[in-house]
Amino acid sequence: MPLIFVNYRTNDEEATATLVERELSRVFGDDNVFRASKSIRLGSRFPQELLTAVRRSSVLLAVMGPRWLEPDGPDDRSPLEDEDDWTRREIREALETGAVVIPLLVGGAKRLRPDDLPGDIEALASCQYRRLSHRNADADLTGLADDLVELLPELGAAARSNGYRARPAPSADDHGTDRNGAEDPRTQARVIKHRQRGGIGNLNGDFSGTFVSEPQGPVHTGSGHLYQAREQYLGPRISGDGGGVQYVGENHGEARQSNGRPVDEER
Q: pLDDT tens for residues 109-156?
């Protein structure tokens, strides 16, 4: 029994309908996603197959491109004006059986208005829609699958039985911690990959400590304080707590730790 029915119009985003079906089949399982060109076997009576599939589906995705409403034929009429138009019949059947109907607007397709539609599928214009951009197809399709999992329990069960794993929750604050206070590993990865140009600071992630990025002088790191000083003031100094003071000036050279070994600019 298919759970998701992919509805589309011939000559309008057929390739996109195939892309949508393949990605959702990967998440929910091939038998749980119906697309006519894939799911109807040779010799089968397609009217009966189409209506049976849409009646058993929990969700109908109506893939709509810029040509979805355009006239098609010598009479300059929209195909939707034909009561026997299969795109229209499938949507009508889904609305009547209580399936969740989601318009999937592709590219520059405009949002539907009630006046654009015949009365038996006029409710389609008020259904919450999603957009699919070809430039962001991977992210948009992943988001669509995640939303479908959250939308209906049977879809979530089908996805989990097919190996689906929910995406991690986003960070709750600017310090890279989740809702439970644990450090977000995605934040660690961004910190490690970030290229800091110049300066001295602390780096937290898989390792921690003092780092010097792109040093421009013989900078030494160790215990004690670091101060910015002009060249004429460089010399022995004692800090208020009795420790040694280390200066950082306008220098050129490599960075070394207090043990004398070079500090890598990046790990």
A: 989 999 999 999 999 999 999 999 999 999 999 999 999 999 999 999
- 49 phi/psi in degrees, rounded to 5: -60, -45
d(CA 200, CA 184): 24
Rounded to 5°, the CA angle 192-196-202 comes to: 65
CB neighbour list of residue 202: distance below 8 Å, 6 or more residues apart: 208, 209, 210, 211
Rg of the chain taking only CA atoms, in angstroms: 30
Low-confidence ranges of the chain (pLDDT < 70): 1, 73, 168-267
User: What's the farthest any 2 CA atoms get from each other in the chain?
Assistant: 95
Helix axes 14-28, 153-161, angle to 10 degrees: 70
Of the candidates 220, 203, 204, the residue with the CA atom closest to the CA atom of residue 262: 220
pLDDT at position 75 is 73
DSSP element (H, E) containing 132: strand 130-132
How is 54-77 classified by DSSP, letter by letter?
Answer: HHH-SEEEEEE-TTTTS--STT--
pLDDT digits (tens, 9 = 90+) for 2-29: 799 999 998 888 899 999 999 999 999 9
The pair of structure tokens assigned to 231 is 């060249």
Look up the pTM and report it. 0.62
> Which of the 8 DSSP states describes residue 213?
-
* Cα–Cα distance measured from residue 188 to residue 191, given in angstroms and rounded to the nearest whole number: 5
